[in-house]
């Protein structure tokens, strides 16, 4: 499947205040390919600006002018999700949400709590323990496709931020660097979804986490591998403006 000439990340889909949500942008780019993809975020994602797509071999690039913003290459998820928490345990964790990066009372499309109902995903994760986080998400019907299920780019978005909530507590912030996702079953709207994230490893400023979506009975709906970069204080300050 050939990509279109360009994509645009609407201002609605911000992560940090001045740039796009990495998971949503990655999912939008991945939706133009039938093959499993690993999407890398190379620079802050411009909001409301066309990104030109080009392809060289198996690699697709999204560029803003001459700046590479995203690249996508063939690659599949590698992690095996652990058993999910129960719906009750995930609800209990969500009632005690923690903050990371763009979380807290931000307007992040996925995890921000300063959004009106239906204007964000409202996935507010809390800790299960030192390495696991969880929430319960009931998808709003305004993000479903013509088949009545959540559109793939929103599934990718839902699999993004939760991974950050599972990472070690940091005085600065984390930003998604790379992501791959697999949708095993369609994600329904109006039904509760268990969101589960777990920290896998850390190496300096790089951190790796898995995320998964399960139905209320624990069946696996979708999963992702997420690589995070711990920003320096100067980098984190730049994202806020």
Instruction: Briefly note the CATH topology name of the largest domain.
Output: Thiol Ester Dehydrase, Chain A
In what range is the share of β-strand residues? Answer: 25-35%
SSE order in H/E notation? EHEEEEHEEHHEEEEH
Main β sheet profile: 11 strands, antiparallel
Low-confidence sequence ranges: none
Description:
- This protein has an 11-stranded antiparallel β-sheet.
- It is an alpha+beta fold.
- The protein contains 5 helices and 11 strands.
- The longest helix has 9 residues, at 22-30.
- The chain has helices at residues 22-30, 87-94, 152-158, 161-165, 233-239, and strands at 6-8, 37-41, 50-56, 59-64, 67-74, 126-127, 132-137, 174-183, 193-203, 206-215, 220-230.
- Helix 1 runs antiparallel to helix 3 (152-158).
- Strand 10 (206-215) and strand 11 form a beta hairpin.
- The chain folds into 2 domains: 6-74, Thiol Ester Dehydrase, Chain A; 87-239, Thiol Ester Dehydrase, Chain A.
Brief write-up:
With 241 residues, this protein is α+β, with helices and mostly antiparallel strands. Helices cover 15% and strands 33% of the residues. It has an eleven-stranded antiparallel beta sheet.
Structure keywords:
2 domains; 241 residues; 33% strand; single chain; Thiol Ester Dehydrase, Chain A; alpha+beta; 11 strands; globular
